[in-house]
Amino acid sequence: MDDVVGGLSLNLSDVADEAVRLAIAAPLIRYNESRVGFRDYKPLVIELRNAEGAIVGGLWGATGYGWLFVQLLAVPEDLHGHGIGRRLMQTAEAEALSRGCHGAWLDTFEFQARGFYEKLGYSCFASLDEYPKGFSRFYMRMRLK
Question: Residues 93-105: pLDDT tens digits?
Fold first, then answer.
């Protein structure tokens, strides 16, 4: 691609290579640490497995800066309404508290689980309209106790 400055170039790709993500994040992480003075990021993963041991859902997130971030929560549709999602969230929140977190945040689409999260005590603090077209994306948070 075109030279940007000083021999640097831009390389556009649609390949999500974890090594590339880490290389891109490295200067940002160093900058953040220089401002905050620490980095306490730690993944938080809860696997939901069936009787055969296959992963059928679960929770994927992380803790850092005193917050739990829930990136993914998935329960098979035929198991909705059995308290599994609530149990996954409670387990993650308890672990976050043990890690010193004071809050939790996540996002969900309008056609997903806003009501579920509100029943757990989360409230919407922002939304992004028309993402995807015809729907909104909601950003939610809760104080951990």
Answer: 999 999 999 999 9
Residue 20 lies in a domain: no
75 vs 4: CA distance, rounded Å: 45
Q: In degrees to the nearest 10, what's the CA dihedral of 102, 92, 119, 51? A: 180
Looking at the DSSP bridge assignments, the partners of residue 107 are 139
What residues make up the domain containing 119? 39-143
pLDDT at 1: 56
Q: Total structural domains in the chain? A: 1
Tokens standing for residue 46: 């809860």
Give a yes or no: residue 27 inside a domain. Answer: no
Residue 109 resides in a domain: yes
Tally of helices (H runs) and strands (E runs) in the chain: 3, 6
> Is 0.90 topped by the overall pTM?
no
